[in-house]
Amino acid sequence: MSFRLIVGLGNPGDAYETTRHNIGFRVLDAFAAKRGATDWSKNRNLKGDLCQVVVGDSKLVLLKPRTYMNESGVSIQKTCSYYKIPPEEFIVVYDEINLNVGEVKVSASGGPGGHNGLSDIISRIKPTFARLRIGIGQKPHKEMDLSDYVLGKFSEEDDAVIGASMERYLDSLDRLLREGAEKAMNHINRKPKNKDREDGQL
Question: How far is it, in rounded angstroms, from Cα 108 to Cα 129?
Fold first, then answer.
């Protein structure tokens, strides 16, 4: 089984462009640009920005929902129905507060983990889609409202880490496309052993 659709989650509009919640859009833009696809078309019927790229011998549809995060599933559901794509054949790229900035992990399925975008997708479709989770780090203090945190912008330091990690995110997405979720998880999610450390320290 091969993937036919990659969805990046985020909120439309300039005000949200550089927020933590829009890292899915950011990664998908970089993925498309790497393949020479920079012209996104707004599709009112599918309620999203779309473009197509070729990876290997396969055509992939890329989607950035324009329904705002909490109704991401509306656009994905319409797109999957139009292209006849089952849940097992699409990948969702999104922000993950339970991973440090710069970290990335793959999941084959599962619950929303408190992410409103995933909650909406699962409620409208199924939880059996693959996920590329991009770390944005935890809130600085527990009292901070989660929406304020994810809708806030990265610090200069964290933004630099995101930029330096972008190639790793794209490599992880390529591996996921090439190998499938289960095999990609074994490589991407494994924690490095002491002997893997570049500085040689224990």
Answer: 6
